[in-house]
Design brief:
Blueprint: H1 3-11, H2 28-39, E1 44-50, E2 56-62, E3 67-73, H3 81-95, H4 100-108, E4 109-114, H5 119-123, H6 145-157, E5 161-167, E6 172-174, E7 183-186, H7 198-214, E8 222-224, H8 234-240, E9 245-250, H9 262-278, E10 296-298, E11 300-301, E12 303-306, E13 315-324, E14 329-339, E15 345-346, E16 349-351, E17 357-359, E18 374-376, E19 379-381
Parallel strand pairs: 3-4, 3-5, 5-9, 7-8, 11-15, 12-16
Antiparallel strand pairs: 1-2, 2-4, 6-10, 7-9, 12-13, 13-14, 17-18, 18-19
Helix pairs in contact: 3-9, 7-9
Length: 385
């Protein structure tokens, strides 16, 4: 697809976006209901295994081409943005099956999607599975039923490419500048030396293609995820087996705590990489462009309050803790730092102007306090998302 095609997709995204998934929560029952009614009637699919609590883990298949691509999401149950983007992708393919792009994709690629690898964690909006294990640290031991199901698919399918899809917190900036890392990418390392192997270069080329395309949408809001080697992680493990692997990290876009804007950029990036693969255009992209992407930095707070008379010279750094309540994610503001924060950024900034600050009617402010009420002098501030 050409440059204008991606702009058109973004402008008309409401026609692609799957409705009913606007909250950060996306649980197993929600997903299963959607798959049963809107995906399974149109796509080849099967159950690849069971979670530790015996919930089914599904795969959805597209195409019968020579390029084999394995995509998985929500191995961390509370990282839902990429799952929603994958549902949008499936909807897009179904709606556009008669277009030249989709026809070429189906002929040249076989795409296998595992939309929710951790259904137990997803149900309770938890990163971990039912045994409190991080699946993304289980690549070597393969001790959990979810991990065993995944690696059976991997070994049977023998993919040419893997896309490992995640979400990241609001604290990340794209480099050291005042821009949030709305999307971050990683071509994982295969050793402690972070060697740039031919396999790793392929991941870098795919990321470079997405990075160049995204310049029209979020030019300063793309980061490069930390590539420290951990053989227990899926991406590092798979890349070390000579399968090019790309890690997606869906992050924060301005005033988009539900991440419905971010999901659009995930979708566009996925589409671009698949376009490059199906079109045989990998050689057009220089892997060295990958190193132009700024490294993620942990430089953001959700809110910073500066200049409070009773706290000088300290600032207040506030982060939102995510809590599930009645199948909706609530964002609770919590005090995370009491120190000068002049070298940090914030998604919201409040200047106290040397007035007295009280939190929960108290001037004794402590790290870890959840904020129910925030007042500066006689003005009350609403921190609800």
């Amino acid at each position: 697809m050409n440059k204008s095609s991606y702009k058109t997709l973004m402008q008309n995204y409401s026609a692609i976006k799957v409705s009913g998934f606007n909250d950060r929560y996306l649980g197993y029952e929600q997903l299963k209901d959607y798959l049963d009614n809107n995906v399974f009637p149109f796509y080849s699919h099967r159950v690849i295994g069971q979670s530790e609590l015996k919930r089914s883990i599904y795969e959805v298949n597209i195409g019968k081409g020579a390029n084999k691509i394995l995509i998985w999401s929500q191995m961390h149950g509370n990282e839902t943005t990429t799952t929603k983007a994958l549902l949008d992708f499936l909807n897009y393919i179904n709606l556009n099956k008669n277009t030249s792009f989709v026809k070429a994709l189906i002929v040249k690629c076989t795409i296998k999607i595992i939309p929710m690898l951790n259904p137990d964690g997803a149900t309770v909006y938890n990163r971990l599975n039912a045994h409190n294990k991080d699946l993304n640290r289980d690549a070597i031991k393969q001790s959990q039923s979810e991990t065993k199901a995944f690696f059976k698919v991997l070994n049977d399918f023998e993919p040419d490419y893997c896309f490992n899809m995640h979400g990241q917190r609001t604290l990340f900036s794209a480099g050291k500048a005042d821009y949030p890392a709305t999307l971050s990418f990683l071509s994982p390392s295969i050793d402690d030396d972070r060697s740039v192997t031919p396999t790793r270069k392929v991941g870098m080329q795919l990321i470079s293609a997405a990075y160049e395309m995204l310049q029209d949408f979020i030019p300063n809001q793309i980061g490069r995820y930390d590539d420290a080697y951990n053989p227990n992680c899926f991406g590092d493990y798979i890349q070390s087996k000579d399968v090019p692997t790309v890690l997606f990290e869906a992050g924060h876009y301005q005033n988009d705590y539900r991440r419905n804007k971010t999901r659009q950029f995930v979708f566009l990036s996925l589409l671009k990489m698949l376009d490059v693969i199906s079109g045989g255009e990998l050689s057009k992209y220089n892997y060295k462009t990958y190193f132009d992407i700024p490294m993620n930095q942990k430089l953001y707070y959700d809110c910073i309050i500066s200049g409070a008379e009773n706290l000088y010279p300290n600032d207040v750094g506030i982060v939102y803790k995510e809590q599930l309540a009645e199948e909706s994610v609530q964002f609770k503001p919590v005090i995370d730092a009491l120190k000068p924060l002049n070298h940090f950024y914030s998604h919201r900034f409040i200047e106290a102007k040397q007035n007295k600050l009280t939190i929960n009617s108290q001037s004794d402010i402590k790290i870890g306090d959840t904020i129910e009420q925030l007042r500066i002098a006689d003005q009350e501030f609403d921190l609800n998302v």
